[in-house]
């Protein structure tokens, strides 16, 4: 009985977060209302406030769910894993409303009352961990400061998706990510490693 209640609570929370992502993606933070989110998620007011005490708390949950839409889809390691992480991101942001809403909320915090850098910091930490492992394995040059490189990747991808959204609705984002790596790889990896990295972004389409 307890297990059934726990499973139901998990499913309800997931439905609320998914419904909120759809509303935030469509209307932004300021245009979204708790009532609209409840209707989209198909939950009662009691269920909503049992899981989330405010719209801001719900927005933070959507923002911080971004890695969950990407990391489980990865099966590579080393430097290839880092490249693949950006490739999966480039495709998923076009298809996954949870990721897309999280990115929108993270980038549009001005005027919302939220000042939360944790999504950027979390991504940088995930990348730094993988980069450190790749460097220990000789796949990233010793001269590379992995923390700075991780933060550079987060900054570059943030700006790149905004640029791609403006010029193509993000349709050309995967190709832009490939172009970024063609520029970066020769400077951060030994030549033999750089040459071995699979840059076929279409395999994640």
Automatic annotation (TrEMBL):
Residue ranges of domain HTH tetR-type in the record: 10-70
Coiled-coil ranges from the UniProt annotation: none
SUPFAM superfamilies: Homeodomain-like, Tetracyclin repressor-like, C-terminal domain
NCBIfam families in alphabetical order: ScbR_bind_reg
InterPro entries attached to this UniProt entry: ArpA-like (IPR047923), CprB_TetR_C (IPR054126), DNA-bd_HTH_TetR-type_CS (IPR023772), Homeodomain-like_sf (IPR009057), HTH-type_TetR-like_transc_reg (IPR050109), HTH_TetR (IPR001647), Tet_transcr_reg_TetR-rel_C_sf (IPR036271)
PANTHER family: HTH-TYPE TRANSCRIPTIONAL REGULATOR BETI (PTHR30055:SF234), HTH-TYPE TRANSCRIPTIONAL REGULATOR RUTR (PTHR30055)
Designated name of the protein: Branched-chain amino acid aminotransferase
Native source species: Streptomyces bungoensis
Chain residues forming the annotated DNA-binding region: 33-52
Pfam families the record matches: TetR_C_45, TetR_N
GO molecular function terms noted in the UniProt entry: DNA-binding transcription factor activity; transaminase activity; transcription cis-regulatory region binding
């Amino acid at each position: 009985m307890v297990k059934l209640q726990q499973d139901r609570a998990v499913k309800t929370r997931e439905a609320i977060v998914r419904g909120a992502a759809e509303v935030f993606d469509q209307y932004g933070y300021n245009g979204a209302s708790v009532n609209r989110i409840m209707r989209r998620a198909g939950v009662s007011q009691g269920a909503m406030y049992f899981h989330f005490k405010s719209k801001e708390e719900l927005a933070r949950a959507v923002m911080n769910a971004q890695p969950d839409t990407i990391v489980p889809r990865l099966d590579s390691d080393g430097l290839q894993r880092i490249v693949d992480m950006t490739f999966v991101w480039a495709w998923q942001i076009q298809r996954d409303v949870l990721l897309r809403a999280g990115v929108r909320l993270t980038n549009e915090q001005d005027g919302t009352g939220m000042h939360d850098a944790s999504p950027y910091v979390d991504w940088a930490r995930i990348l730094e961990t993988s980069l450190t492992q790749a460097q220990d394995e000789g796949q990233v040059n010793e001269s590379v400061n992995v923390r700075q490189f991780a933060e550079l990747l987060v900054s570059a991808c943030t700006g790149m998706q905004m640029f791609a959204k403006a010029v193509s609705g993000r349709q050309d984002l995967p190709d832009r990510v490939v172009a970024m790596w063609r520029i970066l790889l020769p400077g951060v990896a030994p030549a033999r490693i750089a040459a071995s990295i699979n840059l076929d972004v279409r395999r994640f389409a």
